[in-house]
Write a structure and sequence with these properties.
With 393 residues, this protein is of the alpha+beta class. It contains 13 helices and 12 strands. Strand 11 and strand 12 form a beta hairpin. Helix 6 runs antiparallel to helix 7 and helix 6 packs parallel to helix 11.
Length: 393
Amino acid sequence: MNDSDKFNILFQCSNDAILIIDPEADKILDVNRAACVLLNNSREALMNVPLQEVYPDQDKLGVLVQEVNECGKSWTDQLACRSCDGKLLKVEISASSFPHDGQDCVLTMIRDVSQRFYAEQELQDRLVLEELVSNISREFLQVRSGKLNACIDRTLARVGLHCKVDRCYLFLARQPDGYLFNTNEWVDDGIPALIDIQNTKANKDFEWIHRQLRKHEVVHITDIEKLPGQEKKLADHLRSMTIKSTLSVPMHYDHELVGFLGFDSIRDKKHWKDQDIQLLSVIGDIIVNALERISFENDLLTLNRTLEELNDELEEKVVQRTHEVIEKNSQLTNYAFYNAHKLRGPLARLLGLINLFKLDYIHPGELPTVISKLDEAASELDAMVKEINKIIT
């Protein structure tokens, strides 16, 4: 077995795609079986397509070829390949100078790293979303009633930009009828706001979505054209708003639907991953907890104000009652003084004159004087009684 046969065996058996190219002639000179699989085309077809069909970025290809010419080899992970169906592939390319049929060419070994790349990108996106959720949680823990609405608006903007959606919004259930009312909305540049329209349209168009939300189910519509026929009104309504994909994440408190977070994709169809939906549900829980906490704090403030008012009224009544008691004590003191010093005098004289009558000590000639004294004592006693009445009333 000569060297050419050995090379052909290695060439065809390689797990990596191999292309032998002539950059100056803009040709693919040969490909192995792995290259045919990777690029989804036959050997004959690939050998008849220009290089730019496989390597769309000609500038980066030129840099790779120049380094091969200068150093004899090169490596890059910045040059993508395109398959015959138009799919761009993330690849790593190892290139070296290679003689082929008497001319200097470039041998490129291509390894598809798309799966690894997108897995790493997905992991990075998830870490960023987790950090975003953590920051949102901290912000809502500190927010107060007057700044809650602005905090919700910031959250919708941050989540909408991260998830690359066109519209992000919050609906809350109005009490006591449970009507879902659009309270907050964020839209990307160039996307019309719908918050005013949403609040004037009948909720019956969304009845199917609302039924799912009340059952604690996430509504994930990746393509409105695939909605079941019985939901034609819903599909027509979403289509009228140029929505291609939508996601609704329910928010519950004590088993009751409090509202939901909504995400609309208008420019492109979108599929949300389960782990991302879980994190979006956490954001919904954070908002619900903040709403309930602030509602409780407001109720507590109202109760405190009521107690303060009652306490003020009680203190006022205590002051008034104390004043009344002091006044009564003063009246009782005055009464005791009148009783001990002023009332006793006329009463004693009146009783003494009466005793004189009883003992028959009064001379007939003195009777007018005694009667006058009785009248005087009685009048004085009457005046004292009237004065006491003034004191105690």
